[in-house]
Inverse folding.
């Protein structure tokens, strides 16, 4: 099914004791609250390390970045490791411009992220 511009699709899986949340589509003003709420719902219900897989995310705005930062701070307060993986070049550029590449761990692939977070 195609993802329309105003939709964000999220899925969670548990792999090797790690909560992996995948996001697909775009995060913008129309769905940033949904993105935020879905992230929080997943992390609050879990005590696992968290990988946020952004392979299929094509755009994220400042509200989406803020949600990721808040999730990171929440997990840091619980001493729970949180990393990002599989960012497209355009999304990676947004993270770099915002300076998030200096405050959040990012990995090229899901398998690299899971290996790093569980070691």
């Amino acid at each position: 099914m195609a993802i329309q511009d105003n939709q964000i699709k999220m899925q969670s899986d548990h792999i090797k004791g790690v909560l992996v949340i995948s996001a697909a589509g775009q995060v913008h003003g129309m769905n940033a609250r949904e993105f935020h709420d879905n992230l929080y719902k997943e992390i609050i219900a879990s005590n696992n390390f968290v990988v946020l897989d952004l392979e299929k995310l094509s755009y994220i705005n400042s509200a989406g970045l803020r949600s990721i930062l808040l999730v990171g701070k929440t997990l840091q307060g619980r001493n729970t490791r949180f990393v990002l993986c599989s960012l497209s070049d355009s999304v990676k550029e947004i993270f770099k411009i915002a300076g998030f590449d200096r405050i959040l761990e990012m990995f090229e692939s899901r398998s690299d992220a899971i290996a790093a977070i569980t070691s």
In short: The CA atoms of residues 12 and 21 lie 4 Å apart. The longest helix spans residues 62-77. Residues 8-118 form a domain with the Transcription Regulator spoIIAA fold (CATH 3.30.750.24).
